[in-house]
Design goal:
By secondary structure, this protein is of the alpha+beta class.
C-alpha cells in the first residue's frame, strides 16, 4: 500500500477546492483511505492519519472513527505518537463517552513517567476532559506533582487541580497542604496558576476562604513587586510587568477582602498604588485599572479610595474605545446607589454619552442618568432627557418615557412643572408610554385644583395640533369633559386664555369619534367627555343627537355607553346633573400605604385610604351597602374579594342569587357600624407585613361544609393573635370524580353582624381523583361573638357542563365563634 499523503499536502489540496461539494469529495476520499489504513493496523502512519483526521474535525467533518486510534497512540512509547494521541483525545473524546475511561491507566502511567514533557501531556489531557471518575482515580498523582520542584510540572498540575476540584469538590482538602508553598515560587507561570487554584478554592468553600485570608500580606507583596519592578522582557506587555498575573491577584484579593475588615485594611494601600501608578495610555493598563476598581468597590475600602475608583471610571468615559466607555457606564450604574455624590461629579460626561452613536452605550447612559436624578438637578436633567427622548430611536422611547414619569413624580419642584413635563412626554412619545400613565396623569390633574384651567387649555391646544398620540388624546378628552366650562369661559391665569366656543369644543370631540387614528378606548373617552359636557354646555340637543347615533355602533363598548347615556337623557334625566358632576379630589397616601379593594361590577378598583384624616363615613362601605339596596338585600354583608372574579360580567347577579334567600330568623340585626370597623378590619395587617404572619393555630376542630357530586369542601380554623374577634377559615376543595373541575369559584355571605373578607384562591382548577386541593382563605370578624352562619355558592365546569349549587352552613364549631 502506498504511503499516505502528508498533512501539509492534504491542507494544500483542500484549499484548492473551489466549491463545498469539491471539498467534501476530497475529504470523503481521504477518510476512506484513512479507514483502510486503520483496518490494516498500520502502525507506521497511524500518527500521520490521526493528525489529518484532527484537521478534518476542525473543519467540521465527522472524525469519531478515530477515537480508538487515539488511545493506541497514547499507549505508544514514542513521544510524537503520544503528543498526537493526547491532542486527539482532547478534541474527539469527552466524559459523555465511555471510551475515555479506557485511557485512565495510560494517563496514570504517564503522570509517573520519567520525562517531564510526557507528564505535561497527561496533565493537560486530564485537566481538559477528565471526568469525575478519572479525577477521583488520578487526584493523588496530581497532588504529588503539585509538590514537585519542577516549575514546568507545577504550573500544569495546578491547572489540573482546578479541573479536579470543579469535577469533585470534596477532593479540595487533598490539595490544601500543597498550596502552602505555591506563592513563594519565583516562576510567574506557577504563581499565575497558583492564584487561579486559590481563587477556585475560595469561591467554592467558605472554610477555604477563611483559611486563605492569612495569605493577603503575601499577595500584596507579590503585587507590589510587580508594579515596582523594572523592565523585564520576559513578562513585559506594553510597558507593564505581567498584567495577567496582576489581574488574577486583584481578583483573588477582591474575594478575600469582601466582608472582612482586616483583609480590606491590609490591601487598601496597594490598591491605591496600583490605581495611581498604572499607565492608562494602553489597553493593558485599563484592564488592570478596571480590575482594581472592581476590587475597591467589593471590599470594605476607605471612602477616599472609593472616590478614586469612581474617578478612574470617569476617565474611562472620555476614552475613545467604545468597550471601555460601556464598561465604565455599567460599573457606575452598579455603584451609584452606594456612592451617589461621587458619581454625580461626572454627570455632565454621562449625559454626553446620551449622544453616542453606539446603542449599548446610549442605553447604559440613559439608565445611569435616571439614577442620578434628584431634587437638586431635576430641572437640568429632565431638560437633557427630554431632548434625548425627542431624538432617540423608537426602541428607547418606552423606557425613557417611563423613567421621566417616575422621576417627575418623585422630584417635581411644582405641580405646573410636573404637568408640563408629562404633557411634553405625551406629545413627543405618547404612543410608547406605559398603560398606567393615563390614569396617573388624570389623578395628578384632578388633585391640582388651581391648575385645572391651565391644563385643559394646554391639552386642547395639543389636541388641535396632533391626535395621533392616543394617551395624549385620552387625557385631553377626559379633561375637556371635566373642565370644558373653564376652557370656554377663558379663566386661565397662568397664560393668555384662548377664545373657544362650545361648538368648537364639540367639533373636536366629534372629530375624535370618527377619526381613523382613534382607538376604541379613545372613542370611549371622547363619548364620555361629550356626555359630561351636557351638564356644562348649553347645547344639550346636539349632544343628545351625537349620543343617540352611537347607540347602534358596531363597537359593543361604545354602543353600551351610548345606550346607557341615552337612558340618562330620558328616564333618569333628573339624576343626570348629579351623576355627571366633577370628579372629587383623589386622595393619595404615601407610598406603601394601605389600599382598600372595592368590588364594583366585577372590576377590582383600588381606593387609597387617607390615614391622616379618615372620613366620618367609609365611602367604600357605603357603596357596598348601596349595591345591596339595589339588589334587594338589606340584612347581609357583601363579600369583598382581593381578586377579580372569574366571570366579572355577571358578578352583580350572582351576588343577588347568593344572598337572596339567606335565612336569618332568630339572629338580631342591629344597625351596622360601617364608619370605622370595616376599613380597620379589611386593612388589618396589610400595610406593614404579610397578612398571616401573626396567626397562631388554635384548637378548633375542622369540619366538612359541603360534600356533593364528588366535590368536597372542608373548613379548617385558626385565630388571629392581634384580634381575637377575627376567625381565619381556610377552605380545602377536593374532587373525587374522574375529570378535573375547571372555572371553580367559591363565594360566601354572612349576616350583617359579621364582616367577611375572601382572599384569592390557590387555583381555579380542582384536580380529579383527589390528586390535589384548591385552598382559599376567609377572614370573618365577629365582634359580638354570635353563632356563625354562612351561605356558600359553588360554581364550576365538569366535563364541559357548568354546575352551580347553593348551600347553607350552620354547624360551625363553637370554638370558631365564641
Amino acid at each position: 500500500m502506498p504511503a499516505p499523503i502528508r498533512l501539509r499536502e492534504l491542507i494544500r489540496t483542500i484549499r484548492t477546492a473551489r466549491t463545498q461539494a469539491e471539498e467534501r469529495e476530497m475529504i470523503q476520499k481521504e477518510c476512506a483511505a484513512i479507514r483502510s489504513s486503520f483496518r490494516e493496523e498500520d502502525n507506521t502512519y497511524r500518527c500521520r492519519n490521526v493528525a489529518k483526521l484532527l484537521y478534518m474535525h476542525m473543519l467540521g467533518y465527522p472524525a469519531h472513527f478515530g477515537q480508538l486510534e487515539c488511545l493506541k497512540l497514547i499507549a505508544s512509547q514514542k513521544f510524537t505518537d503520544k503528543r498526537i494521541g493526547y491532542l486527539g483525545a482532547m478534541l474527539l473524546l469527552d466524559e459523555r463517552q465511555d471510551v475515555h475511561l479506557l485511557m485512565t491507566n495510560c494517563i496514570k502511567n504517564d503522570l509517573n513517567h520519567s520525562t517531564q514533557y510526557v507528564q505535561g501531556l497527561a496533565l493537560c489531557t486530564l485537566g481538559c476532559m477528565g471526568s469525575s471518575e478519572m479525577c477521583r482515580d488520578l487526584a493523588g498523582e496530581v497532588e504529588k506533582l503539585l509538590k514537585t520542584s519542577n516549575s514546568y510540572l507545577r504550573k500544569k498540575a495546578a491547572l489540573c487541580a482546578v479541573h479536579v476540584i470543579r469535577k469533585v469538590p470534596e477532593l479540595m482538602e487533598m490539595f490544601l497542604p500543597a498550596t502552602k508553598n505555591l506563592l513563594s515560587e519565583k516562576n510567574h507561570g506557577v504563581l499565575h496558576t497558583s492564584v487561579v487554584l486559590l481563587t477556585e478554592m475560595c469561591e467554592r468553600s467558605p472554610d477555604m476562604l477563611a483559611h486563605f485570608r492569612k495569605l493577603v500580606p503575601q499577595l500584596v507583596r507579590i503585587l507590589k513587586n510587580l508594579i515596582m519592578s523594572g523592565y523585564s522582557p520576559e513578562h513585559d506587555v506594553s510597558g507593564i510587568s505581567d498584567p495577567f498575573l496582576q489581574v488574577r491577584i486583584l481578583r483573588l484579593l477582591r474575594i478575600l477582602g469582601k466582608s472582612d475588615d482586616d483583609s480590606s485594611e491590609a490591601m487598601n494601600d496597594i490598591l491605591a498604588q496600583v490605581a495611581t501608578n498604572t499607565e492608562t495610555s494602553k489597553n493593558v493598563g485599563n484592564a488592570i485599572l478596571y480590575e482594581t476598581v472592581l476590587t475597591i468597590m467589593d471590599i470594605k475600602s476607605e471612602s477616599g479610595l472609593r472616590v478614586l475608583a469612581i474617578n478612574i471610571l470617569g476617565r474611562f468615559l472620555l476614552n475613545n474605545d467604545k468597550n471601555i466607555r460601556y464598561v465604565a457606564l455599567t460599573s457606575l450604574l452598579k455603584t451609584v446607589q452606594t456612592d451617589h455624590n461621587a458619581v454625580q461629579r461626572h454627570r455632565s460626561t454621562i449625559v454626553d454619552c446620551l449622544k453616542d452613536l453606539d446603542v449599548s452605550i446610549k442605553r447604559r447612559a440613559m439608565e445611569l442618568s435616571f439614577a442620578l436624578v434628584n431634587g437638586n438637578n431635576i430641572r437640568g436633567m429632565m431638560k437633557e432627557l427630554l431632548y434625548f427622548l425627542d431624538s432617540c430611536d423608537p426602541e428607547f422611547k418606552a423606557d425613557c418615557a417611563s423613567g421621566v414619569f417616575l422621576a417627575a413624580e418623585k422630584y417635581a419642584p411644582s405641580k405646573r412643572w410636573h404637568i408640563d413635563t408629562i404633557m411634553r412626554v405625551l406629545t413627543t412619545a405618547g404612543s410608547y408610554v406605559r398603560d398606567d400613565s393615563v390614569p396617573n396623569l388624570i389623578q395628578l390633574i384632578t388633585n391640582s385644583v388651581e391648575m385645572h384651567a391651565y391644563t385643559v387649555q394646554r391639552l386642547y391646544k395639543a389636541l388641535l395640533d396632533d391626535i395621533s398620540q392616543q394617551p395624549l388624546v385620552q387625557v385631553a378628552s377626559w379633561c375637556i369633559g371635566e373642565y370644558g366650562d373653564l376652557l370656554v369661559s377663558g379663566q386661565c391665569e397662568e397664560e393668555e386664555p384662548i377664545q373657544v366656543t362650545e361648538d368648537e369644543v364639540l367639533d373636536v370631540l366629534e372629530g375624535l369619534l370618527v377619526s381613523n387614528l382613534s382607538a376604541a378606548v379613545t372613542r370611549g373617552y371622547s363619548l364620555t367627555a361629550i356626555m359630561k359636557l351636557s351638564t356644562r354646555f348649553s347645547g344639550v340637543n346636539r349632544i343628545k343627537k351625537v349620543v343617540s347615533i352611537y347607540g347602534s355602533s358596531i363597537d359593543v363598548e361604545l354602543q353600551q355607553r351610548a345606550v346607557e347615556y341615552n337612558a340618562l337623557f330620558k328616564k333618569y334625566d333628573h339624576m343626570r346633573p348629579a351623576l355627571l358632576e366633577r370628579m372629587p379630589i383623589m386622595e393619595k397616601s404615601a407610598s406603601n400605604g394601605p389600599t382598600e379593594i372595592v368590588q364594583t361590577n366585577g372590576e377590582t378598583e383600588p381606593s387609597v385610604v387617607d390615614s391622616k384624616h379618615p372620613p366620618p363615613v367609609s365611602q367604600p362601605a357605603n357603596q357596598a351597602n348601596d349595591l345591596l339596596d339595589l339588589l334587594g338585600g338589606n340584612d347581609v354583608v357583601p363579600v369583598i374579594q382581593t381578586t377579580v372574579p372569574t366571570k366579572p360580567a355577571s358578578a352583580g347577579g350572582e351576588l343577588l342569587d347568593l344572598l337572596g334567600d339567606l335565612s336569618l330568623s332568630g339572629v338580631p340585626t342591629p344597625a351596622p357600624s360601617v364608619a370605622t370597623s370595616q376599613p380597620s378590619f379589611l386593612l388589618d395587617g396589610l400595610s406593614s407585613q404579610p397578612l398571616f404572619n401573626d396567626i397562631a393555630a388554635a384548637a378548633i376542630p375542622p369540619m366538612t361544609a359541603y360534600n356533593k357530586n364528588g366535590l368536597k369542601i372542608d373548613f379548617t380554623f385558626e385565630r388571629a393573635n392581634p384580634n381575637p374577634n377575627v376567625a381565619v377559615i381556610t377552605i380545602h376543595a377536593s374532587n373525587s370524580t374522574e375529570a378535573d373541575m375547571t372555572d371553580f369559584v367559591f363565594q360566601a355571605a354572612v349576616p350583617k353582624t359579621f364582616q367577611l373578607q375572601l382572599l384569592s384562591p390557590s387555583s381555579n382548577v380542582v384536580p380529579a381523583l383527589n390528586q390535589g386541593t384548591v385552598t382559599q382563605v376567609i377572614r370573618v370578624l365577629n365582634p359580638q361573638k354570635q353563632q356563625l352562619r354562612m351561605r356558600i355558592k359553588l360554581t364550576y365546569t365538569l366535563k364541559g357542563s357548568p354546575v352551580q349549587d347553593l348551600a347553607e352552613v350552620n354547624n360551625f364549631p363553637p370554638q370558631s365563634w365564641q
